[in-house]
Design a protein that fits this description.
The chain has about 290 residues and is of the alpha/beta class. The protein contains twelve helices and nine strands. It has two domains: about 230 residues, Carbamate kinase (3-Layer(aba) Sandwich); about 35 residues, no CATH class. It binds uridine-5'-diphosphate. Its EC number is 2.7.4.22.
């Protein structure tokens, strides 16, 4: 049967700027609560949600590097630590609305969070837990957008080719199994033998998308703050983003998405219901792909 929603597993990227809302104190609890509620509503539908949090609301390495003798690597490590603060805040909020949530960090901080272990992350997702990936990629000179693309590709959200081959092999196997009825006298016959649970475990490789929650409605053909006639684009190719130098994501992140055929949806998280709409695969913001 066709899954009810477009995605079965998504990677939601929440930037630090989006978490800040209108609060001067770096994090706006109204925003984190809204995120938690909307994510809760979709996890109840069975959609698996992983989150990558940014840290720009607290510290952005690139804007500090150079000042007061701070080298880029040190500045970036501070930036990565900032993402851990956001992650723990978001985790606590998620759990207060009843969603079991795990934080995994790209470098070890085992007293506060689990270290990133790919298979473990997938297992949490399969059990219906939300996983928040913190500390970006764990490397200076990268961004949390790249971390989002990387974790998405890595946790088999993104490998279309693999997923397709895998799906075909499993369907072939199930078809052969269904046609070979080991219980010829049973009333259930072949239909009963192809159990619901088996079909479900096949489908869980279906979903792969990065949903980038921002403070803007999507991608415009020009800067809307400077050009009042700038148009909001529905769809866009990776190549457009790269050649027109649209500041959707940094080049490393967008290239990683392109190479792994991961669609990216850019949408506004301040509009109520948008997060759950995006996760359910409904039309919202701008979709980049192709
Ligand atoms: N950062 C890093 N490596 C990573 C991810 C993040 O060094 O893989 C640092 C970098 O200094 C960055 C900061 O963490 O400025 C916060 O992340 P980012 O700017 O991506 O957050 P966002 O813009 O999403 O709030």
């Amino acid at each position: 049967s066709k899954p009810a929603y477009k995605w079965r597993r998504v990677l939601l990227k929440v930037s630090g700027e989006a978490l800040a809302g209108d609060n001067v104190q770096n994090i706006d609890p109204k925003v984190t609560t809204a995120i938690a509620r909307e994510v809760a509503s979709v996890t109840r539908l069975g959609i698996e949600v992983a989150i990558v949090v940014g840290g720009g609301n607290i510290f952005r390495g690139s804007s500090w590097a150079g000042s007061s003798g701070l080298d880029r690597s040190s500045a970036d490590y501070i930036g990565m630590l900032a993402t851990v603060m956001n992650a723990i805040f978001l985790q606590a909020t998620m759990e207060s609305v009843g969603i079991p949530t795990r934080v995994q960090t790209a470098f070890r901080m085992s007293e506060v969070a689990e270290p990133y272990i790919r298979r473990r992350a997938v297992r949490h997702l399969e059990k219906g837990r939300v996983v928040i990936f913190a500390a970006g990629t764990g490397n200076p000179f990268f961004t949390t957008d790249t971390a989002a693309a990387l974790r998405c590709a890595e946790t088999s959200f993104g490998s279309f080719l693999f997923a397709k081959i895998y799906l075909w092999l499993v369907f072939l196997f199930l078809w052969l199994k269904a046609n070979h009825n080991p219980y010829p006298d049973s009333d259930l016959g072949t239909v009963g033998y192809l159990m619901e649970g088996e079909a479900d475990s096949v489908l869980q490789f279906n979903a792969e998308v990065v949903l980038k929650a921002t403070n803007v409605d999507g991608v415009y053909d020009d800067d809307p703050r400077q050009n009042p006639n700038a148009r909001l684009l529905d769809t866009l190719s990776y190549q457009d983003v790269i050649s027109k130098e649209l500041s959707v994501m940094d080049l490393t992140a967008i290239t990683l998405c392109q190479e792994n055929n991961i669609p990216v949806v850019v949408f506004n998280l301040n509009q109520e219901g948008n997060i759950s709409r995006a996760i359910k695969g409904e039309r919202v913001g701008t979709i980049i792909g192709g």
